[in-house]
Amino acid sequence: MTLAELGQEVEGLALRLPGFDSRRFDACLRRQGMMAAVEEDVAFAKDIGVNATPTIFVNDRRMTGFRADEFQDLIQQEIRSAGSR
To answer: Which of 7, 13, 50, 80 could be cross-linked to 55 through a Cys-Cys bond (beta carbons 3.0 to 4.6 Å apart)?
Structure first.
């Protein structure tokens, strides 16, 4: 999916929200440098292996999705690991 397609998809979803101002949304997307900043973020995410949201890193360990119990387990493992060094 290109960034342009993503922007269209997001706007389509946002149009359903009460009070959504499509002119302000369009102005934000057209603001100089905005797309360049987004493209840089997307490239960085790809470089570090992010391919889903949410993606959470704890030290060098990556977790995709959010499951509170697994996140808590990961944190506890890292704490134990740090204590044994």
So the answer is: 50
Give pTM, 2 decimals: 0.54
pLDDT digits (tens, 9 = 90+) for 25-78: 888 877 777 778 888 998 999 999 898 888 988 888 888 887 889 889 989 998
Please write down the HEC assignment for all residues of the chain. CCHHHHHHHHHHHHCCCCCCCHHHHHHHHHCCCHHHHHHHHHHHHHHCCCCCCCEEEECCEEEECCCHHHHHHHHHHHHHHHHCC
CA distance 17 to 29: 18
Cα–Cα distance, 61 to 55 (Å, whole number):
10
